[in-house]
Design a protein that fits this description.
Number of domains: 2
Distance between the termini: 86 Å
Pfam families: CcmH
Largest sheet: none
Family: Belongs to the CcmH/CycL/Ccl2/NrfF family.
Radius of gyration: 32 Å
Function: Possible subunit of a heme lyase.
Domain CcmH/CycL/Ccl2/NrfF N-terminal: 7-149
Transmembrane segments: 102-123
Length: 151
């Protein structure tokens, strides 16, 4: 019983590839390269899903385009560069960590360090600040208060 349940869970949890049979290349080496390339490309319709996993029409077109480029003799990096030139760097599931992207990659940790430093400075200044001593009412204030309360 437990084995059957485990098998069902494994089958349900297995990834479902969206590659259609008419897209598959005859050469198994080229097909493996096409799968490898398409796992690194984002479906522009589905957001954080690779074109290899997506059923969207645009993902299908991108899979076919990748296969055409590989059949034409492009290397994996040349095929990816062609897609990036055509659709922009957003199509990469893992954007490059160079140029302007480096600023985006580093902005989060830098902002966290700045916030921690500001919190530390605030807490240190607060602990060193003189404690305000509460003073009682002066004689003038007492007489004025008693006048107000009597009215």
């Amino acid at each position: 019983m437990i084995k059957r349940l485990l098998m069902i869970l494994l089958l349900v949890a297995a990834p479902v590839w969206a590659v259609q049979p008419d897209e598959v290349l005859d050469d198994p080496v080229l097909e493996e390269r096409a799968r490898e390339v398409s796992k690194d490309l984002r479906c522009l319709v589905c957001r954080n899903e690779s074109i290899d996993e997506s059923n969207a029409d645009l993902a299908r077109e991108l899979r076919i385009l990748v296969r055409e480029r590989l059949v034409a003799g492009d290397s994996n990096s040349e095929a990816i560069a062609y897609i990036v030139d055509r659709y922009g760097e957003y199509v990469l599931l893992r954007p490059q960590r160079t140029g302007s992207n480096l600023l985006l990659w580093l902005a989060g940790p830098v902002m966290l360090l700045i916030a921690l430093a500001m919190a530390l400075v605030y807490l240190r200044r607060r602990s060193v600040a003189p404690v305000a001593v509460e003073q009682g009412l002066s004689d003038e204030e007492k007489t004025r208060l008693s006048k107000i309360l009597d009215e």
